[in-house]
Amino acid sequence: MTSNTKAEAATPAKAQPHGYEFGGPLGAFGVSFGLPLLLYIFTFACNDISGCPAPSLLSPSTLNLETLKREVGWPVDGIWGLGSWRVTGWTLAYYLLSAVLYRVLPGTKTLGVELDHGGRLEYKLNTVYSTIFTVSLVIAGTLAQGAEFPLWTFMTDNYLQLLTANILISIALATFVYVRSFSVKEDPATRASGDMRELAAGGHTGNVMYDWFIGRELNPRVTLPLLGEFDIKSFMELRPGMLGWMLYNYAHIAKQYRTFGFVTDSIVFISVVQTLYIIDSQIMEPAILTTIDITTDGFGMMLSFGDLVWVPFLYSAQTRYLAAHPVSLGWLGVIGMGAVLVTGFSIFRLANSQKNTFRTNPNDPSVAHLKSITTKTGSRLLVSGWWGLARHINYLGDWIQAWPYSLPTGLAGYVVIAADSVAATAAVAAGEQVFARADGQLVLGGAARGFGMIFTYFYVLYFAILLIHRDLRDGEKCARKYGEDWVKYTKLVRWHILPGVY
């Protein structure tokens, strides 16, 4: 190893040169505008008007644009119907409520990791209190008005417009922080005392598209009238999007009840376990201050869109599906799903707890026996225990937890037909399970059975790709930070996520 490489190994990771990620400017463009388009496709193609997928999509040779538009519920006023000033106004009010709760509710204050320029930013952490307060209000409203509680009907009746509103907000926010990042003073001689603003190491390449996407400023903060200072990145990480995910699950439960007159165990199971996942992440809120999102990535379209749009709308796709096509698991099914979930959560939590304990107190009896290597930076890397099995064994647990979100949808896919149609008579005669809706329409698997898995199991595929990509990014960061020590570590811990496979 050359002397230059050794010198780089001792330099903090964020100070090292960063190349393009996500395929550079072209990839940044594709993610920024391709993923919103994908969510629109999912919204239209899997619907409660004609089916999931829409029937015409199953017969591409006879595809007719006008018929398809009718089947997917394309707005009568065209592209302008994708949005609504009224819905956008209420969406902004939701964000304002989240900001007010952040300011007025009690919380603990803690310091983040040390910045390149020195010093640590202070964070107020009270997301779980904000969530409990909000959920308590909607529970009270539901107890008083049932499935017709206006919030639930508003969310499901305006799903498309809410999607558009949040996409526009994410774009506006990413643009705001990008433009504002040019006021960051990188020269120590021009920085005011106490100024801890800095650029993200990989976010100021000079390419507008890429920097706007990846995030130019590391920790953008803004001061709002009457509400004070907000750290935009940490605020968006666990608040509006995560709560929106939870609320959409509940809205879909209410819609299933309004549509069919009952609620299935599958939609309740998914909503409960995802609620526990969200609450757990918010209880563990201090842990986000050491994640790559906070310590390394700038705040741009990548995180803005991911936090505000991708999480609430994609992650609730399974309950949206079940609201339109009920699936019953039975007790054995629920127990089976629970067993998979507990397995994944146990791996995830035990691995993370072991690492956190080792970092805070390596002499603790529960971790004192573990083997590690000491790097030139002074850090110690575990090479036994959970972390001797794979470099990101916690990701394996996280991915296993994703399966019970999709499995309850079964062999997904359904069609919506009129009760007095020939197809309905044939389905009943064939003994196919048919669900009667409150509007007189019937829902059954039919020819769509299995094709709906494109939508309900996409989350599992996406999450695997996300975790593999995070593993690769973290590996690159550690290679820059630890140099030859990282090479030594990877020889001892060969596997990335899944021992013996990857």
Automatic annotation (TrEMBL):
<keyword id="KW-0472">Membrane</keyword>
<feature type="transmembrane region" description="Helical">
    <location>
        <begin position="260"/>
        <end position="279"/>
    </location>
</feature>
<dbReference type="Pfam" id="PF01222">
    <property type="entry name" value="ERG4_ERG24"/>
</dbReference>
<keyword id="KW-0752">Steroid biosynthesis</keyword>
<dbReference type="InterPro" id="IPR001171">
    <property type="entry name" value="ERG24_DHCR-like"/>
</dbReference>
<dbReference type="InterPro" id="IPR018083">
    <property type="entry name" value="Sterol_reductase_CS"/>
</dbReference>
<keyword id="KW-1207">Sterol metabolism</keyword>
<comment type="similarity">
    <text>Belongs to the ERG4/ERG24 family.</text>
</comment>
<feature type="transmembrane region" description="Helical">
    <location>
        <begin position="126"/>
        <end position="147"/>
    </location>
</feature>
<feature type="transmembrane region" description="Helical">
    <location>
        <begin position="159"/>
        <end position="179"/>
    </location>
</feature>
<protein>
    <recommendedName>
        <fullName>Delta(14)-sterol reductase</fullName>
    </recommendedName>
</protein>
<keyword id="KW-1133">Transmembrane helix</keyword>
<keyword id="KW-0444">Lipid biosynthesis</keyword>
<feature type="transmembrane region" description="Helical">
    <location>
        <begin position="87"/>
        <end position="105"/>
    </location>
</feature>
<keyword id="KW-0753">Steroid metabolism</keyword>
<feature type="transmembrane region" description="Helical">
    <location>
        <begin position="329"/>
        <end position="351"/>
    </location>
</feature>
<feature type="transmembrane region" description="Helical">
    <location>
        <begin position="299"/>
        <end position="317"/>
    </location>
</feature>
<feature type="transmembrane region" description="Helical">
    <location>
        <begin position="442"/>
        <end position="468"/>
    </location>
</feature>
<dbReference type="GO" id="GO:0050613">
    <property type="term" value="F:Delta14-sterol reductase activity"/>
</dbReference>
<keyword id="KW-0756">Sterol biosynthesis</keyword>
<keyword id="KW-0812">Transmembrane</keyword>
<keyword id="KW-0560">Oxidoreductase</keyword>
<keyword id="KW-0443">Lipid metabolism</keyword>
